[in-house]
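haha ok so turns out i had the wrong file open the whole time. this is the CORRECT one, sorry everyone. sequence first:
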Amino acid sequence: MRILHFISSVDKTSGGTTAYMQLLSAELTSLVDLVVVTGLSPNPVCLENVIVQFFDISLSRWYRLEVEFKEFLEVNQPDIIHINGIWEPQCWLFQKVAQGLDIKVVLSPHGMLEPYILQRHPLKKKLALALYQHRALRRIDYFHTTAQSELDQVRKLGYTQPAVVIANGIETADVLPKTEWKAVQNILFLSRVHPKKGIDLLIEAVAQLAANALHITIAGEGDAAYVEELKQLAIRRKVAHQFHFVGGVYGRMKWELYQQSDLFVLPTYSENFGIVVPEALYTGLPVLTTTGTPWQELETEKCGWWIELNVANLTRALNEALQLNVLELKGMGMRGRQLVGKKYEINEVAKEMVKMYDEIIQIY
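then structure:
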């Protein structure tokens, strides 16, 4: 079975979808004949043991690009095309070319249909929907979502095609688990530095705490102007000495950051999955995140906090974490590890993906 994944970019600055593709492709390549098609970028991540085809997907090359896509697909003859993401016109172009060749197309929206995303730059979204995106979504053969809440949103928007929920996963073999726990002092945020991530609200919440010795690491790539805006906010709130912006971290350095921290915080407005959550949990960290993510299991499995996002709730949850003793924090950490081990290992996710592809081939 030949599967071709399309993703507009696998650049290191592209966020969670790129990290997901890096992990999933490493597992899928041993189960199917896998090719990844993507756009040129200055700093692409390494997709190990995977055939990667780079295209110049500049919009100025639209008509030439359509020809190149068609020629490529005619040569490679995939059984299924799996598109990752929406809104970029190039995703629609690749879908259109594939379906013109009678190739079935799966779409993973990766959270890009969530209410928060739809409300950002609404005029651009409405224009895109009118010009191509609504038509593209209506013509998709099969949806893959990473959480039931994401599928519910797809249905709410009126798209009724067959669908399956398969969560993202992590490579647990890479994780450096915690070996000791202590009272919360080092807090970690690790994700793309972007307005939707709620880092400004975290700064406001920390400013309301009495714990002046807290050390908060903000790790992740982000627009330099926005990072500076956050630093200036921390200065105005007199907590700049507590926040440390370290940029993107990868490989062993990333796992060491998790291991050395006492609490993981992702105060995001919207996240279809949030791969950093299971990463933190499997390290042994309690996690504080929001109802903008599908992580209610943090409450049901007693390994963290799942809150409505506002400064008051963030402040309350941080205060609760600060009151916990070492045994309580370790208990939360160990329950988090058990949860991820049962449900979110990437090899199991890859097997579920292959089952989905098999089902689609049988249906059609």
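The chain has two domains: 2-169+345-363, 172-343.
again sry for the mixup
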